[in-house]
Amino acid sequence: MEKRVLLAVVLSVMVIIIFNYLYVKFIPSPQPTKISQNQSNNIEIKKEEPLKKEIKPEEIKISQVSSEELKNYILISPQYEVSITSLGARFNKFQLKNYSKEKNKKEPVNLISSPSEGLPLEIYLSSAPEVAVINYRGPEKNIFSLENATSQTISFLGSYKNITLEKTFTFKRNSYFIDLSFRISNQGNEVIKDGILLRGVFSPFVDGTKYVFKGPFYYTDHLNEIKLKKDLEDYTGNLKYLGYEDTYFMVALIPQNMGNATYRATFRNIDKNTQEFILWLPPFELKPNEEITYNFKLYMGPKKIEEMKKEYPLLGKALYFGIFDFIAKPLLYILKFSHRFTGNFGWDIIFITILLRILFFPLNQISYKSMKRMQEIQPIIQKLREKYKDDPQTLNKELMNVYKSYKINPFSGCLPILIQIPIFIAFYKVLLMAIELRHAPFMLWIDDLSAPERLYIGNFHIPYLGGIPLLTILMGASMFVQQKLSPSTTDPFQNRLMLLMPLFFIILFINFPSGLVLYWFVNNILSIIQQYFTLKLLKK
Length: 540
Prior knowledge:
Elements: H1 3-18, E1 72-76, E2 80-85, E3 90-100, E4 108-110, E5 122-125, E6 143-145, E7 151-160, E8 163-172, E9 177-186, E10 192-194, E11 196-202, E12 215-219, E13 223-225, E14 232-237, E15 241-245, E16 249-255, E17 263-269, E18 275-280, E19 284-286, E20 291-302, H2 305-308, H3 325-342, H4 345-359, H5 361-376, H6 378-387, H7 392-405, H8 414-433, H9 470-485, H10 492-509, H11 514-539
Parallel strand pairs: 1-6
Antiparallel strand pairs: 1-2, 2-3, 3-4, 5-11, 7-8, 8-9, 9-20, 10-19, 11-18, 12-13, 12-15, 14-17, 15-16, 16-20, 17-18
Helix pairs in contact: 1-8, 3-4, 3-8, 4-11, 5-8, 5-11, 6-7, 9-10, 9-11
Membrane topology: Multi-pass membrane protein
GO molecular function: membrane insertase activity
Subcellular location: Cell inner membrane; Cell membrane
């Protein structure tokens, strides 16, 4: 394969990596998982047009409640610590005990990430947004523990005019899923026609790479990531769940026992880093002394596929690695399987890199042999280009005759690389997004595979970078060696350009997660070894 073809392929790969948000949506056709439903709470929904009234946060006015009347209810489980305020029976803290916000610091990740803009998940009537912040009456006890219990239910009672409201949370010991029910009772003498809305407002829970989507989403028969380019976006139709995610954590709201109801979901930018979603449930009608109960599942935890699938397998689709998700998921499984034996994700990355090189060994052999044979006929090709420089058609015809005479397929060197590109991109996405790599150390100065690596020597400081990106430099050096081993063309410009590629990659990778740099470095080393012995055998 000619070097200009290799250059085009490499640059194409990097364009895909840098601008991954331009991926064409890969639309799967999953079969929605049937979940168990509470038959006693079946709801007959009238197929009416979704409510059109827009509810803004500033419309929700907090009622005059004295501080003495407000209470916080604390629940402690092995996995998280939760605080619920009686004002709206809303979460005002949801800390994940097993995940720290920053490496080597004790502050846990808090999924209530934007409390100044509203507390999730608040529930209110479409005609009365102030219901979101009425003061609920909770149990006498205000501290609960799941250390020695399998589950814990906490109920809150509230009232608004002639309506009684009951919000109930059920927490489970070994799950990030929470059952939420909301019951409305008509205690008056008139029919009530209204609708229920649930609002979530979030900003990223932790710092993460800018190459991964952060924001609200919803799932129909595929995942829809809402990249808000205007103030408000709207969806009406059937959905399975919606929520908010950043690189490593997510909050998902899953409606239950609603059949194939039509929902409305609105999404809005509050500020640069904060977004809001509102789920509009189908309208209801309650006669005097009638009641209606809505059931939901909440998932509040890490984007860890085995946790996400525990109670609702379809939620596993929310961990989406892009267009090559169907390749990335098996690679993630292999990475975690290897970790059972090594206990170190750095060695797991090296193991998968070796595995991929073995898998593609025959294809790479074809590529190296093609490169060598193309080099051998370069003088002939160069003469033909000089001779027919003003006659492209004749030049192409003569080139094809040369390839035919020497039994060379000009595309045989390029094809193996093109076949491997989807796997490389899929593994790249896994290394960027897998929460298993977050804060995971490797060895020596590489103490976090999800962050850029830096080697700090005493007080030596590099502006902007801080320490020395040693692994990234070694990766660039390995690329330089690889280029020197590759058969050169007769075009001096192409040769100089290819030798500049290592510098380009060093600059590109300098702030990439060290796990990705490790993968690329090891891949280069293995490529150098294979290339060296292949070309040596061809000389004999």
